[in-house]
Amino acid sequence: MILIVDDRPENIFSLKKLLELNQFAVDTASSGEDALRKILRNTYFLIILDVQMPGMDGFEVAEAVTGYSKSKDIPIIFLSAVNTEKRFIARGYTSGAIDYITKPFDPDILLLKVKTFYRLHQQTRELNEIQKTLREEIEVRKQAQAELHQSVEELRSILESIPQVAFTSNAEGHIEFVNRYWYQFSFGMDMYPQTPPGEPTIGDYIARTTGAGAQTSTEIQIRPLKSEEYRVHLFTMTPVKKGEQILKWVGIFTDIHEQKMANQVLEQRVQERTQELMRSNQELEASNHELQQFAYVASHDLKEPLRKIQVFSHLVKGKYLSGNNEAINYMDRLINSSDRMIMLITDVLNYSKLSINAEFIPTNLNPILQEIIEDSELLIHEKQAQIIMDELPVLEVIPAQIRQVFQNIISNALKFTNRDKQPEIRITAELLTEKNADSSPDPEGNYCRITVADNGIGFNEIYVDKIFAIFQRLHSREEYEGTGIGLAIVKKIVETHNGIIVVRSEEGKGSSFILVLPVKQTSSEQKAQKNGQ
Questions:
Q1: Measured between alpha carbons, how far is 46 from 56 in angstroms, rounded to an integer?
Q2: Got the DSSP string for 304-325?
Q3: Nearest to 473 by CA among 463, 484, 464
Q4: Cα–Cα distance, 13 to 8 (Å, whole number)
Q5: CA distance 474 to 463
Q6: What are the C-alpha distances in Å from 303 to residues 290, 306, 342, 376, 442?
Q7: Ramachandran angles phi, psi of 499, nearest 5°
Q8: Is 498 in contact with 527 (CB distance < 8 Å)?
Q9: Ordered DSSP codes for 160-204
Q10: What is the pLDDT at residue 479?
């Protein structure tokens, strides 16, 4: 905006119209005092000032304007029709004016000068903005430089305090600082610690890391100056970044020689121990095989004399003891004892056979259960039992062993029936996601939950662990027959199949045997099963 100062309204009007027609904003003042007040409140890029005015003349106003810090740089053009002598013109320039125009003046010349001052004003303002921006940027750079210097000093202080060999380098990998431990491996900052002949140097590792632009950790060997032995160190280089730009690298050598040597000794001992365990395992396998052979032969040889005892006992009872009730009673006890002995030998033989490796094959369980039910038909008819069975899925099992599982569980259910109820055995199956007896059903699951539930006499669940122990019984032999091996066989077979078995029972209400078996045996599970034999 331009300020016109003149005490004559006609002069102000004509000059104002001229400037406004050329798109300049104009403000006016009719006296020097009024002009000074406006200059304090507003910003102008040019002042056109009349010389001859009442009160303060133009020279006094110019001197006052150039004396203010806010307005000292505003260009002033004197415009006068009276004071046209050289001495007045000279005083105008000395009082702070940029130009002195006498009246009458050429409007075009005046406009050219006004436009020139306007361009100069615009350029000056732009330069001031640039200077301000540059000053701010310089301050930011100074602050960043100070913060970086402080960070570097803090980093160096930290590296001096740690007990490892440490250094910093610039982004290209040129070392700038080393801590005191560096000199235990090198004579100077410009010399790298020595690595074994034929292996990459520290310089090679640094160049490789800076080229990759990412943190690296490498086990290397370096030799202390006072030793001939190379010691193992973990050499780590970490970038120090500002945004995505790498400013520096921090390298640290951590002595792991003792741990490395201890690990090597430990690995050697582990290897030796592994070989010992392998030898022991082979010996155990051979011994186990011999034991299996012995159990089979012993069981077979024990059965033969027992059969003869039974045959001759029946002959003696029928031929020589007729009418002798006491002798018949004793002979019946002998025959019953031999029967139990044969049953016990048979169960022991079956239990020993579980340690023999067998192969898992996909098996339809429904025919197996049907065969067991058919084999138990007489007992089922005698007990008037009802067996309800769901459709069972195909599982990867050892068929002969899984048959034993169902045979023993169903036999127990038929054996321990409740005299006050019609025996009922219900067999259900559903797929699960997890190997958990309480898992929710899942049609796509990898495990199968098979539940065999009965309404028999049941038992107190505090004896759950006891029923799976070999030769353990919850009832006397006089009440219920059995050797106490059946459920032990069941548990061992289920574990061989990488499954679990859970029993839920309540006295007088019945029992539920819950088996959770894999649908498919993985190769790792089969391997573990074989190694466990």
A1: 19
A2: HHHHHHHHHHHHHHHHH-TT-H
A3: 484
A4: 9
A5: 8
A6: 20, 5, 6, 24, 48
A7: -120, -170
A8: no
A9: HHSSSEEEEEETTS-EEEE-GGGGGT-SSTTSPPPPPTTSPPHHH
A10: 44
User: Quick check: 423 and 414 in contact, CB under 8 A?
Assistant: yes
Q: Are 354 and 401 in contact (CB under 8 A)?
A: yes
Ordered alpha helix ranges (H), 321-398: 325-353, 365-375, 377-383
In Å, how far from its chain's centre is CA 102? 87
* Residue type for position 22: N
Whole-angstrom CA distances from 359 to 256, 318, 319, 521 are 49, 49, 51, 10
**Angle at alpha carbon of residue 307, lines to 303 and 308, rounded to 5°:** 120
Q: Which two three-digit tokens encode residue 135?
A: 């000053």
Give the predicted TM-score (pTM) of the model.
Answer: 0.40
**Residue 347 corresponds to which tokens in the numbers above?**
């169960």
**How is residue 226 written in tokens?**
């006072």
- Residue 338 has a pLDDT of 75
Return the amino acid letter for 384.
Q
Instruction: Decide if 480 contacts 459 (C-beta within 8 A).
Output: no
**What pLDDT, in 10s, does the model give residues 64-100?**
888 877 777 788 888 877 666 777 778 777 787 778 8
Q: Amino acid letter at 282?
A: Q
- Under a CB-based contact definition with an 8 Å cutoff, are residues 160 and 194 in contact? no
3-state secondary structure (DSSP) of residue 427: strand
Sign of the C-alpha dihedral computed for residues 377, 379, 382 and 385 taken in this order: negative
CA–centroid distance for 32 within its chain: 80
Question: Residue 53 has which token pair?
Answer: 């005015």
Q: Which tokens go with 524? A: 């790792």
> Parallel, antiparallel, or unpaired for β 2-5 and 46-50?
parallel
Residue 398 DSSP SS3:
coil
- Non-local (6+) Cβ contacts of 5 within 8 A are 28, 29, 30, 31, 32, 34, 35, 47, 48, 49, 50, 53, 58, 61
Q: Residue 450, exposed/middle/buried by CB under 10 A (0-12, 13-18, 19+)?
A: buried
Instruction: Count how many Cα atoms sit within 13 Å of the Cα of residue 345 in the half-sphere of its side chain.
Output: 20
For the chain, helix, strand, coil in percent to 5 are: 50, 20, 30
Q: CB of 1 within 8 A of CB of 37?
A: no
> Which of 29, 28, 531 has its CA nearest to residue 284?
531
Spatial neighbors of 383 by CB under 8 A, at least 6 apart, are 414, 417, 423
Residues of the chain with pLDDT under 50: 471-483, 524-525, 527-528, 530-533
Spatial neighbors of 233 by CB under 8 A, at least 6 apart, are: 165, 219, 220, 221, 222, 253, 254, 255, 256, 257
CA dist., res. 147 & res. 48, Å (int)? 51
